[in-house]
Amino acid sequence: MAEITLNSQALKHNLNIISSHIGANIELGAVLKDNAYGHGLEQIALLARDYGIKSVFVKNYAEALRISQYFPLITAFYGMPEGKFPKNIAFVINDKAHIAALPRGTKVELKVNAGMNRNGIESSEIYTFIELILQNGLELVGVFCHNGYGDDVDSAFEQGQKRFAEIKQEVRGLSQKYGFKLPRFHSLSSSGAVRAAANKGGISDDLVRIGIAMYGYLDVNFQNPVSANLQKVAALYADRVATRIAQKGARIGYSGCTSLERESVISTYDIGYGDGFFRVNERHKVYTKEGYQILPRSSMDCFSCLCDKHRICVFDNATPIAKAFDTISYEVLTRLSPAIKRTII
Ligand SMILES: *Cc1c(COP(=O)(O)O)cnc(C)c1O
């Protein structure tokens, strides 16, 4: 049976590197959304908790419920709750309808648009939203934005940070005026956190939201002491289904796209596009970790290689796979089917 191994030492190592780079006074929040970037939500939650992580971010309420016993605070980026829910789940306010939908006493984080023009309220609406949040008896635990320019070497990143500094200033003023507890402030994901930490002045938020770097990836266009030292957490293994000796000229798989140049030993392995691994067709050249080509075309539940090993490592680094399919490591990882067995090593 195919398996994903999760290297607990690598995860710990990555969190150590990141936290020493960003500084001990900034809280390290872990982003566990989308099944912990395909790694397995419960498994990564356990490792993060054992490491001492206190705040995590997940995609929605359903993900938050699955790990609510592990952390003091779990923020659900999207969606609203149904029925009764644990007190330690915070919901994100992107719209007035979200305020109206939540029962009194619920923890909320207010998302503000700082230049990505995607989600969040406008900074001109902060006063109105905070007033509504207070009137509705919600507990404002955080105000945040998402700086989407951390990877790019232009000034948009600094502009986003400047805008967030103004937002923080306004919220501090409102907190003094209306006497509510100052919420936590956060704006940086992996690339932004690593970048801001290296800038003069360092990070001026309370917390950073670390996703991809925790899993061992940080492909950015600026020099930094983190990228090259990260270790990949996940590796995908496939097990042999069948082996045969096929004659020269034999055609393999759907439409017989591959035809053998010589008599060969050929095996199928139990990963296909139904398992969330991209479908390899005649336009892709994709190799397993040990260098066996995944022969086009792969099927829903298996692929073929010229090899007879019992088990092969499909990848222990998603980057070459991402390049072959013109995408990013995030997508290769998050697509991995939750049904594949995860094993912490
Ligand atoms: C996904 C996400 C992150 C984490 O981003 P990485 O690049 O994986 O570190 C942080 N904040 C928000 C709002 C996100 O959606």
Automatic annotation (TrEMBL):
Keyword Isomerase in record: yes
Keyword Isomerase tagged: yes
GO CC terms: cytosol
InterPro entries: Ala_racemase (IPR000821), Ala_racemase/Decarboxylase_C (IPR009006), Ala_racemase_C (IPR011079), Ala_racemase_N (IPR001608), Ala_racemase_pyridoxalP-BS (IPR020622), PLP-binding_barrel (IPR029066)
The name this protein goes by in its record: Alanine racemase
Residue span(s) of domain Alanine racemase C-terminal: 233-345
Modified residues (N6-(pyridoxal phosphate)lysine): 33
